[in-house]
Design brief:
By secondary structure, this protein is of the alpha+beta class. It has a single domain, classed as Mth169, Chain: A, CATH 3.30.1280. 32% of the residues lie in helices and 28% in strands. It contains two helices and three strands, in the order βαβαβ. It comes from Sedimentitalea todarodis. It catalyses: N(2)-formyl-N(1)-(5-phospho-beta-D-ribosyl)glycinamide + L-glutamine + ATP + H2O = 2-formamido-N(1)-(5-O-phospho-beta-D-ribosyl)acetamidine + L-glutamate + ADP + phosphate + H(+). Pfam families: PurS (PF02700).
């Protein structure tokens, strides 16, 4: 089984990496980008018996800084 965790900064938290990407795109001639939010995707190969609750616990304890980041979990 696999899990995919999407981690993004919460709304209202400044995203300097996203702003740097937006600025670089503008410098390259891509003027249609008004804003960029950059996040991360973590893919986990899970052993049988690992539940979505287990993955959520992983996110809460290590994979996401829940003070400034939100996350979603996809299981497949």
């Amino acid at each position: 089984m696999k899990a995919r965790v999407h981690v993004m900064l919460k709304n209202g938290v400044l995203d300097p990496q996203g702003e740097a990407v937006r600025h670089a795109l503008g410098a390259m001639g891509f003027d249609g980008v008004a804003g960029v939010r950059q996040g991360k995707v973590i893919e986990l190969d899970l052993e049988d018996g690992t539940s979505e609750a287990d993955v959520t616990a992983m996110c809460e304890k290590l994979l996401a800084n829940t003070v400034i980041e939100s996350y979603t979990v996809e299981m497949s």
